[in-house]
Amino acid sequence: MATEVLDGWSPGSFTHEGRTRPTYRRGSGPGVIVVHEIPGITPKVTQFANDVVAAGFTVVMPSLVGDPGREMSDWYGFTSIARVCVAREFTTMARNKTSPIIAWLQALARDVHAECGGPGVGALGMCFAGGFALGMMVDASTVAPVLSQPSMPFPLGKARKADLNLSPGDLAAVKARADAGCEVLGLRFIDDIAVGTRFDTLRRELGDRFIAVELPSNHKRDHSVLTEQRDEPSVERVLGFFREKLLPPS
80 near 66, Cβ under 8 Å? Predict the structure, then answer.
């Protein structure tokens, strides 16, 4: 049952500028915001989030679309994509524009950081939310951004395939933070068409501050590095990144 998938997680909500969304929280230690992929907070998204909790972090998962705990299926994925496409807060096709949802996620990160302490928070986005962690990096509270298979704007046309889902001003702010030392971790399957050429853009814009984990594709549907097609070394790489950036040296 869907409710059993989230056993041990505390349901809650967060409001910013009049917009309230559900959240699920678990763990202790520095904060990490895990933003789910399409179709929503599935069992495998929750499995990954539980691994982050076990690594010593307070994890907060906002629910942006879908039914929390529901299993992945083709129909469920299709209906969730349809909802994402019509929601203006995600700007699925717009170029050179930061999704409006980013302001809400930045506020959530600030709130979690204020409560949990530490040098800042980690932020991980997947799929349609992959680039959200990059936008969250505009705010100083996010110190460990991770982009897993970033797929927005949807890659229709050469320009959209390369677009980072950021306004020019936000891109400049991200580059300034990278120049100041903030690293960005990115993960993808090499033949994943949803990612387009964004990794090339990230290398060009961020230089050595962009750390790319690129995996061979074994199947044409390989997409979800940390969940549906979970790659264990990649999961460990992400956990190591969070430890390095958020936990004191042992």
Answer: yes
